[in-house]
Amino acid sequence: MAESLSILARAYARIDAEIREHNGAVDVLKEHKLALERKIVDGFTDEGIQSMNVDGKTVHLQRTLWPKLDTSREEVMEALEDVGWGDIVRPNFNSNSLAGMIRDLDRDDEDMPIMPPELEGKISVSEKREARVKNS
Questions:
Q1: What is the CA radius of gyration of the chain?
Q2: 48 phi-psi bin (left φ>0, alpha ψ -120 to 50, beta other)
Q3: How many CB atoms lie within 10 A of CB 77?
Q4: What is the pTM of this model?
Q5: Mean pLDDT, the chain, as a whole number?
Q6: What is the sign of the dihedral through the CA atoms of 82, 84, 90 and 92?
Q7: Lesser CB count within 10 Å: N end or C end of the chain?
Q8: Which helix (H) or strand (E) holds 33?
């Protein structure tokens, strides 16, 4: 029994070492991918390109809008109540729900949400652009 346990332990240790080795390689790949993503986002944006098909994959830009509080959470919660979005307000409010509501607002000429006057000066909107890959 002791011999079979030592074989199992040795195999376990080898697999653990392999996992650690692969995790390190994956981390390096993720860093490289992030550096390429920055260049792709800038290049696509500069050229006015939304997507590109390469090797059976579609590399595309994904734009996500995120609200940023410009004042205290309490003032924002009060303003959300005033604008009729009180259903996401609790002693706190859900940032993802707020982001979804803001994404659904009408847009201005720069494709940014037109904020209700009650939220002006309390919430601003920033955008994050990311490159993504999907099967074509």
A1: 24
A2: left
A3: 19
A4: 0.56
A5: 90
A6: negative
A7: N
A8: helix 2-47
Number of H helices, E strands in the chain: 3, 3
**Tens of pLDDT along 59-103?**
999 999 999 999 998 899 999 999 999 898 888 788 899 999 999
The encoded tokens of residue 74 equal 């309490």
CA distances from 94 to 14, 57, 83, 86 (A): 44, 35, 16, 11
Query: In sequence order, which residues have a C-beta less than 8 Å from that of residue 53 and are 6 or more positions away?
Result: 59, 136
Distance CA 67, CA 107 (A): 15
111: left (phi over 0), alpha (psi -120 to 50) or beta: left
Q: Check: CB of residue 105 under 8 Å from CB of residue 113.
A: yes
Tokens 């390689």 sit on residue = 25
For 42-68, the pLDDT digits (tens) are: 999 999 999 999 999 999 999 999 999
